[in-house]
Amino acid sequence: MTNPAERLVDLLDLERIEVNIFRGRSPQESLQRVFGGQVAGQALVAAGRTTDGDRPVHSLHAYFLRPGRPGVPIVYQVERMRDGRSFTTRRVTAVQQGRTIFNLTASFHKPEEGTFEHQLPPAREVPDPESLPTVTEEIREHLGELPDALERMARRQPFDIRYVDRLRWTPDEIKGAEPRSTVWMRAVGDLGDDPLVHTCALTYASDMTLLDAVRIPVEPLWGPRGFDMASLDHAMWFHRPFRTDEWFLYDQESPIATGGRGLARGRIYDRAGNLLVSVVQEGLFRPYNTGNKSTP
């Protein structure tokens, strides 16, 4: 497969090896650890595969316990905690080489009509995604051409990401910057019509840029990094149906960073301004020069 969106769907298509046990691939990448969004997305697939399929996911809460090793399969063990009249609850444990690296609890809710409805509007107006350059275009504009490693990464990237406030490259560009980042995103190809695939693909994407909001006031998003970082936990609430292969706006902010940890909140909207998903994550941040790796 050459289409990155097809590769993402394939990555989320777990092998069932027992009634409540699944195995997921972990591609061999030039990364220190498996991307957290991949593990979260695969774990949610495992949870969803043990339900009847008539109840969409309404929330998930997860902890990243150990870094996963690229290239090594991950086994997902599902515990069927509850099958109620309106709600279904699953707990998933991700195991790699005999060690638990991640756990997730997901709740599924039978659709029903609410007695009222409201939402806060988006915090600000933003330009349309078509008017903004892609990340790859911004890097080429700044560097002239992509280094080989970035070129290979760009070809494998399953999401088109466009920063509303453009990338920041120098310390001068981040002076006075608020801890906030807003991006347009969508899968680079069709993801099919399975709602669970779209939910799990969005779960994958939700971990890609969220901690940018923590970093923006202290270092440029691109270029040499002063901090290593790792996701500690992740929570999502799914409010409305959506397609991840259509443009969505990811508005992200960090209300606090202290004690080596930074908290980030995200709100995901469709182009009409409807709030689709709410996200909260805490990340661990450690200076590179201390010799400490960001491993929880």
Automatic annotation (TrEMBL):
Q: Does Hydrolase show up as a keyword for this record?
A: yes
User: Highest taxon of the source?
Assistant: Bacteria
List the catalytic activities from the record.
a fatty acyl-CoA + H2O = a fatty acid + CoA + H(+)
GO terms classed as biological process: acyl-CoA metabolic process; fatty acid catabolic process
Q: Which residues form the Acyl-CoA thioesterase 2 C-terminal domain?
A: 157-284
Q: Which CDD domains match?
A: Thioesterase_II_repeat1, Thioesterase_II_repeat2
Key words of the record: Hydrolase, Lipid metabolism
User: Single GO molecular-function term?
Assistant: fatty acyl-CoA hydrolase activity
Q: Which residues form the Acyl-CoA thioesterase-like N-terminal HotDog domain?
A: 32-109
What does the record note on quaternary structure?
A: Homotetramer.
Q: Tell me the protein family, please.
A: Belongs to the C/M/P thioester hydrolase family.
Q: What is this protein called?
A: Acyl-CoA thioesterase 2
